[in-house]
From TrEMBL:
InterPro entries: AAA+_ATPase, ABC_transporter-like_ATP-bd, ABC_transporter-like_CS, P-loop_NTPase. Belongs to the ABC transporter superfamily. This is ATP-binding cassette domain-containing protein. PROSITE patterns: ABC_TRANSPORTER_1, ABC_TRANSPORTER_2. The keyword Amino-acid biosynthesis does not apply. Transmembrane segments: none annotated. It comes from Pedobacter fastidiosus. Residues 2-235 form the ABC transporter domain. Keywords: ATP-binding, Nucleotide-binding, Transport. One of its GO terms (molecular function) is ATP binding.
Length: 320
């Protein structure tokens, strides 16, 4: 769907991006992860030609983008900017309607689509006539997302989409983001410097340093098969929290005891990660959850059983 082949870009003496190549599959969420200045934003902006590469090819849906009109290219690619980037003197409806206006959509169609997005993104109904400064940071972020989604583009580029938010708002928006059907249908390239965020949202992570790709792989690959010391050290200090995000109850299934199921236990899908399971156990009165997997098997699990299964899983993983 999106392919970069040996793409490079320098600014003066700074080699911002140095011969990078990767493919993003259809409906995949690839997260570009790395410390400040490693070339993530430059990479992202080359995909919609806000920055032109010095060398290499970028292909979207089989077509080299350098042969396309940049304006038309950008209309097919949603873009969520760093620091939200709403127009301060446009109200919320006008901010969301920028591209529909360029495309000369009729008023009714624009109106309906905006109403739909307002609902899906849990924005208050009365916000359409307000200006960006009258909304909270989290709400502004949702408006930025609505603007990027309004024409339902197949590709979405997101630059630190949750960067401007406090931790609590960020994790609730991340959870909503993951659950949004409209986003599941999109091919997404997202930039972040936040390891937890990358692990929470990515199908695959592209770890970058000094304009180069260090490793591309699933969160599990990065955690358990780092390619070098840089990749290993990048996750140091956060390993346990990342394992809680990456390992699912299904992974632990064989280590969970087959207890009697009783009534009143909170149900949870085995696709949930350990983090989520712990949160759920914590919020139940009897300290147990009832986990169901795709084979329609069920197990009742408490905190101790969960941690035991997790330790056994890790022990096996290290001794494979
Ligand atoms: N327009 C520009 N002019 C000069 N140098 C630039 C320009 N844009 C980026 N750079 C430099 O290129 C390098 C990569 O920048 P880039 O913004 O892609 O990094 P990043 O990983 O996205 O960092 P951040 O998370 O801080 O945005 C940096 O050294 C930066 O200073």
């Amino acid at each position: 769907m999106i392919e970069l082949k040996s793409v490079s870009k320098s600014f003066g003496n700074t080699q911002a991006v140095d011969q990078i190549s990767f493919k993003v599959n259809e409906k995949e969420n690839l997260v570009l992860l790395g410390t400040s200045g490693c070339g993530k934003t430059t990479t992202l902006k080359m995909i919609n030609r806000l920055i032109e590469p010095d060398a290499g090819e970028i292909i979207i849906n089989g077509k080299d983008i350098t042969n396309q009109n940049p304006e038309i290219l950008r209309r097919g690619i949603g873009y969520v900017m760093q620091n939200i980037g709403l127009f301060p003197h446009y109200n919320i409806a006008e901010n969301i309607a920028v591209v529909p206006k360029l495309l000369k959509w009729d008023k009714e169609k624009t109106h309906q689509r905006i109403a739909e997005l307002i609902e899906k993104l849990h924005l208050p109904n009365n916000c359409l006539k307000m200006f960006p400064h009258e909304l909270s940071g989290g709400q502004q972020q949702r408006v930025g997302l609505a603007r990027a989604l309004v024409t339902d583009p197949a590709v979405l580029l997101m630059d630190e989409p949750f960067g401007a938010l406090d931790n609590v708002t960020r994790s609730s928006i991340q959870a909503e983001f993951k659950a949004l059907e409209e986003l599941k249908r999109k091919t997404i390239v997202m930039v972040t410097h936040d390891v937890q965020e990358a692990f929470e949202l990515a199908d695959r992570i592209c770890l970058m340093d000094k304009g180069e790709i260090i490793q591309i792989g699933t969160p599990k690959d990065l955690l358990y098969n780092p390619t070098n010391d840089f990749a290993r050290k990048f996750l140091d200090g956060q390993r346990l929290a990342l394992e809680f995000k990456v390992i699912t109850l299904q992974d632990l299934w064989g280590f969970l005891p087959a207890d009697q199921i009783s009534n009143g236990e909170k149900p949870l899908d085995a696709s949930s990660n350990i983090w989520n399971a712990m949160e759920n156990i914590r919020s139940t009165s009897n300290g147990r959850i009832r986990v169901s997997n795709t084979n329609k098997e069920q197990k009742s699990v408490d905190f101790q059983q969960l941690t035991q299964a997790f330790n056994q899983y890790k022990y096996n993983h290290h001794h494979e």
